[in-house]
Write a structure and sequence with these properties.
single chain, alpha/beta, 4 helices, 21% strand
Length: 155
Amino acid sequence: MLKLIAMGNVLMKDDGIGIFAAKAMEEELKAKGVEVIFGETDFGYCITKVNDFDTVIILDAASYGKSPGEISVIPLNQYTCDYDGYTQHSYNLLDILKLYYPNLEGDILAIEVKEITFGFGLTQELQKKKKDIIKKIQSYLDLLLEERRVQVERK
């Protein structure tokens, strides 16, 4: 099953872009058979919603030094952890997904932010680009759904 996991904190300005975008697309995605999961900051909840052979798209904020609103697509299988040690509380969603669901496929859609600081709502830069960001995410998901449909027809 295709699942979209929206991560972020809506009380930290642009960090909530994944949540805001997923909410805007939720009904359309559900109609297309995509399960929308609002993980926000609770990756433990997200883990309970995933199965080993799902395709997962993680929608989250990023700060890679790119233009605000730019989307980077990172395959889940390319994620590597660079921690030297672990405690129960040092894991993040990606670490846990790799640990418990090694066959999981999917991507991270990392949306470049302008600012992550205390405050509700997006910065003006992301607010202006929100519709374009949503269109890009929808196009990406439509292509993915079409690829999955073609694969099923070939079998």
